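Q: Structure for this?
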Amino acid sequence: MAIRVAKPGFFTTVQDIGRYGYAHLGISPAGAADALSFRLANLLVGNEQNVPVLEMTLLGATLEFEESAVVAITGAECRATLNREPAPSNAAIEVAAGATLECGSMRNGARSYLAVQGGFDVPLVMGSASTFVAARFGGCQGRRVQAGDLLRVRQHGGMRHRSLRPGSVNVPRNPTPLRVTRGAQQDWFAPETFEKLFAGTYVVSDQSDRCGLRLNGETLQPSGQRQLLTDGIPLGALQVPQDGQPIILFVDQQTTGGYPKIANVIAADMHRVGQLRPRDEVRFAEVSIADAVQALREQERWLTEIFA
Amino acid sequence: MKVIPASDTSLLVVFGDAISPDLHGGVMALFHALQDRRDTRIRNLHPGYASLLIDFDSLRLTHDELTAMIEQQGSAGDAPDRANEAVVIIPVCYDAEFGPDLADVARHGGLSVEEVIRLHTSPTYLVYFLGFTPGFVYLGGLPDALHTPRLTTPRVSIAAGSVGIAGSQTGIYPVDSPGGWRLIGRTPLRMFDPDVTPPTRLQPGDRMSFVAINRETFETLQRCGGIPSARLEP
């Protein structure tokens, strides 16, 4: 069974949880930018959590189904229609053979996820289906999907889709600050610089993508002239280049770099980074590593408790 | 050795603040020791010049447990001596077409083009680490006379395989990309191929040398896919 791409949307790629174990070869994980919505989409259709889905950015795709299928759309609200009738988010949708599913522009975030029961059938590269567009491998021939692509769906049987408890998933319009821990080069920055970081409001630049989100706001400078010996970059690092405007390094990031890292977005908030749009405002709040790990633990529990 | 929490899912182990084979030996010893454990709680290892970033699943392994594991490893013994290991040979064609900046590098160092080629092909380089893009190697050992500042205006597109110099560094562009390095030649070998195991020709800790080849050999190697050795199945 295959799904035909009638319109690809703005930037649509095949993603799974990412490609781990290759950072020492310069290969970043890639993977779903909002891993929580990605996992939710799979769970709703009855898949295992790490099955390839479509990640759609800002403007969704229009898909034509040759055969019947069960799909789910999560993440940013994209005004989806099935044969021109409104289709729900965060719920399994039964799609009849010959139907057209149209995903529109996104309202309350940057990315929507479309999972199909069975999952998209693409070759695994280094153990992952994730598309790494910059290096042109993974996913659908290492590129974003195009009009006319036929996306094959894996054979499956006996799967049961699931539904959510009412009101269990809602995206707040004015979210709380992104939580960060202090970064590897925290002692390069004076206490006043941290005060600026936590008091300031930053705006996501248009020059933001899956490699990193450039922010505009209060300038941050290390105290003294120092040159960093290139070292490894963790996912979500808040790196401070020479111009003092921080960059959040993201899923397609370079694996090493030479700029100091002042802070790091906590793992439990990385899915929110994946929903930031150009011109969105961002604030930061500091938490301890223990609190960050606890938040991640609670998020994992939440994912098991939201199903009816 | 200093262990620093870098995030809620990573630790940075810092061995020093200099580019030296000795410090790098410590990085490699810990890198190999952790790789050999095949511990699924450790997700990614990022070696740097004198540090190792360890990304891990903090729901199954705590920062304290990993720190103890690292300290135990650090006291376990010296780095394995890799000096006897084979040197990876990277053939490079230094024709003017592939090395548009060769003459500038020569002028900057007060050398002839032949001397640049001789100097570039004389050392055994150490692969400190890979980073920036898939397969991009950070090499140590470029002779001082070849140190040349990078271009003031980067090129928009550089062909994969291009060999360049930037400051005290020399390296190879593994994929087509923009860049500001002074280009002195090109290798016909594929430095990065996602469908081959391992996907990069060079690994952290490898020793490598450049060997000059003529245009005819370049084209022959390129015709056979740039992979003269057998492809290994995963």
